[in-house]
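Mods, move this if it's the wrong board.
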Amino acid sequence: MKLLFVYVLFLNALLYSQPSEDADSTSYYNSLSHSHVQNNNYKEALSNTQKAIQYAKKNNNIKDQAVENYNLGKLYYDLRKYNDAIEYFLKSSSLIAMQEPAVIQADLYYNLGFCYMAKENFDRAAMYFQKSKSIYTALNIPDVAELFQLQKGLIYKGKNKLDLALTVFKTIIAIPTTPALSDTKTEALYQTGSIEALKNRNNLALNYLDKALELNAKSENLEQKSNILLALSNVHEKILDKNNAYSYLKQHLNLKERLAIINNKRLGIDDYTKFKESERLKEIVQTNNETKEQERASKFSKLISILAIALISILSLLSLSLYKNNIIRNQSNLLLKEKNKELEIAKDKAEKASKARSEFLSTVSHELRTPLNAINGITHLLLEENPKKTQMDYLFSLKFSGDYLTKFINEILEINKIESHSIEIEHTNFNLKQLLVGIQNSLKELALVNNNNFTLNVDAAIPDYLIGDPTKLSQIILNLINNALKFTKNGDVTVTANLHVLEDTAATLYFEITDTGIGIPEDKLTSVFDSFSQGSIEVNRKYGGTGLGLTIVKKLIKILGGRIELKSIVGQGSSFSFKLAFKISELPVEFTTTKKIDYDSKLVNKKILLVEDNKINQMITKKMLHNKQIICEVIDNGEDAIDLVRKNKFDLVLMDVHLPGINGTIATELIRAFDAATPIIALTAISLHENRDMLLSFGMNDVITKPFIPEEFYTTIAEYI
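Not the wrong board. Structure tokens:
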């Protein structure tokens, strides 16, 4: 494939060697995108390429539009988003169809062929490879015949025409080896060996595969090497050479894991749906009439029943999905320990389980927030409307269930953020003693519930001021104390912080949380740190909880550079301990006190624009605003919101992030072009790929996360009104 790589470098040289221009230009965004690709930052590469396309459209530059659509297709191809890659390659093709044949057009058709090969549409792939070959021939570009011969052989193999494929591959193998043809010849050797293995000519297969591995060593094609190692493992297993089979399989798995880490780094920052939404303007949906007032008395019970059923359905679906996911994962782990004959089957199931878990956790925490916002919001409104005493128990139960599920989803999102390496470590100046005293004060009431003695012991030798991450440290200690107080009754819970090692500019501290509670069986001391694990079904039924707290604790301590230790005896209690290193600061901690805003008086008769496409959320948010005597106007799409803000004066705009057509971030960016004064607050069911800083970068003043807490909702609005 090196010859193709030479042409791609030639094409990139044409694209990126233009003279430097102003910041607001196609070539500027093009060069930024190229730089981000080299740094493996595909999120920014996608963003800058899209900006380059928009700038080219603004200037009606067809050639630049064609080039940038091609570049966007290449980015999606690198991310293995083949449908999106095909879409932008075809857009580029339509834009350059009326121009003279060029290298970019040939390369475009070649990449389209690769996309359809990945989708196993071999006829369509063959058509585009032929178009690419014709243009290369017309341009008199030499030494490309072997590339297309290789693709021809791969297409034959894909259609199960193995004899024809062998003929093509052996023709390539017979060509003398040159640096430019190294990858192509390696691939031909690998494919020939694979076909010979299918025909049970194992010794011949090993001969070709050994040559392929030897030739591959001269290149950096890791994915090709991974395929060759797996093929060698399979052939050695067929001839009962278990040692070599296991050795090659182990090399393959190690290399595949390395490739997966590289690809996951790309995909972990890839929020490609956001870029697709910004290009597709959906039809404007007419505004529905305002939701009628809820029926009183006789319809009240029916509404509660519907909400309860919806909540139970969500919980049941979530529990069933998590249960099935755990079964798949456990089965995969067991299969991986079986005989060498079952290794490949176990590997496939493990990969499927990991993919299912990642996809499920990345979507469920985001998608459940919108209906949860409706459940929590309607419950809050009903509680404010002076319900009957007989209805209060139902409403408080519904509110408790909604808050519980919100906590569950937040913990799932926290786990997913940790595993996708989306969490950054802070380096903040803080006072450990004051931090621990604050935690103790906040949990005193919880200690009284089970009649526990809650004691805090802090070593006086610990420096007053440290530099570290107080947020994550608080999260760790709060989780451990909460567990201790929950599983202890009429007993003692003690938190200890001692100085372990003191150096000139650093201090290592020892933390220990002990209790005299129910304890943990010896055979569960390791599994309690697994996700959704609480030691036993009986413990879960009696004490409740999600089983994610200790998982988060263990992962956060590891991120901060420590390791958690657990000692426990059933009926006598448990002890969790860990050590963490901090830098020593000589500067005192600056404390700022936030004055509580009297929002009731500030909000009366204020005019707010609510941009929200979900009808239920429209009704809930508008009702909450009306309860504070706020004048609220509702719009359900970004385009109309921009026009309305341009023509009217609002005290504040509540902007949903995910809207049909122009999404909330783009709409805010466009509003800021003509109005920098009106406060805009984002409403979002924030996901793994969204964060506060990203949203604020578009011009938003603040962020309110769904499902929102009414007190925080009103306070945030009052702060900017």
